[in-house]
Each structure stands twice: as C-alpha cells, then as structure tokens.
Known about the structure:
Elements: H1 10-14, H2 32-36, H3 53-68, H4 72-83, H5 89-98, H6 101-108, H7 114-122, E1 126-128, E2 131-132, E3 145-148, H8 156-163, E4 174-177, E5 182-185, H9 200-207
Antiparallel strand pairs: 1-2, 1-3, 3-5, 4-5
Helix pairs in contact: 3-9, 4-5, 5-9, 6-7
Amino acid sequence: MARYIGAKCKVCRRESEKLFLRGSRCYTDKCGFTRRGYPPGSHGKVGRRKLTSYAIQLRQKQKVKAIYGILERQFRKIFYDATRKAGNPGANLLIALERRIDNVVYQLGIASSRTNARQIVRHGHILIDGKKVDIPSYLIKVNQVIKLVDRQKKNPLIKKSLEERDPERIVEWLKFDKENMIGTVVRLPKREDITLPIQENLIIELYSK
C-alpha cells in the first residue's frame, strides 16, 4: 500500500483556504495552511484581483472534487443523480459523497486520508456484509457492516491511523469496533453531519447556468 505523499496540485496552489487533502493532519496544528494562513509560493502574500461570481462558484466545485478525490465526469454524474432526488440537491450531493465507501473507510479511522482509503478499497482489503468490494464509489446503506480483511489488521499504516484518530471527529452515523476492525452504518448521514467548509449552493448555481 503506497504512502500518501500529499497533493501539490493546481487546485491547492490556487486555493486560499484549507482543502483537507492531508486527512487527519489538516485537523491539527501541523497543518501547513494553519501555520501559514496564505497560499504557498513567493506571491502567496500578494493581494489578488477580485474574483468573479463564476470563478468563486468554480473554485467551490474544484475544492469539493479535491477533498473527495472525484473526477469531473464522476462528480457530474453524482450531481445530476442528486438533483433527481427529493429534497435539497446540494445536501443530496454532499450526502452521496459522504456515503462513498472510500470516505466511510476514512471516517472510521482505518485510513489516514481519503486517498489512502481509496487505495485500501481498490486493493480488496474491505468487506461489506462479508463480500469484497473494491469500487471506491460504492454507496453504503443503513445497517451494512464494513470489515477490514484479517490479513490487513496488523498493517502498520492502518494501526498508526487508528492510534492517531481523533475521538472528537467520530461521526454519529457510524459505529466502529476497533478491536475487531468492524464498522456499522447506524444511519445515513445528514447535511448537519458534514462539517467541512463547503458552500454547496455555489455548486448548484454553477451547474444551473
């Protein structure tokens, strides 16, 4: 399992706010953005021209894609599925992203970041209701049981991730048995469960044009 190095992508260089790309590190004082407070590079402190409404909306979409590691084609599909469901389409979008199995593995603390969680899933290390699932976009359902395969329970990276897991960040819609490495979906996530700094209304406005 490859080690997650961190993202030095175009989105990170452009954004002037935290993207939570380094998993649990972003919630600590070790976070580079928390220490610095401005974009990297020699021009990070230099004031920039005012962004248009379109640019602000686009950046919000790019930020969400970067946080969850979603490509444009995948993101667009999730968005249109969200608009066809009852309720607020923005909330439906974020709830669908939270229900992805790679995000669930990250939320359980098995992985230190969503990128690392995606690798764990793709390598076939996750069982859902006893069956192997290696598709990161798989959407979990209520009462489903997520289990780490036995051969990975002693993986040092997974053990380290669980040790460093912040108990205050445990989401209420998941239950986790750390001793047996088994998670249970108590209920589906709600919009209020998602604490990331996301303005989904801007994404709705962008796609509505």
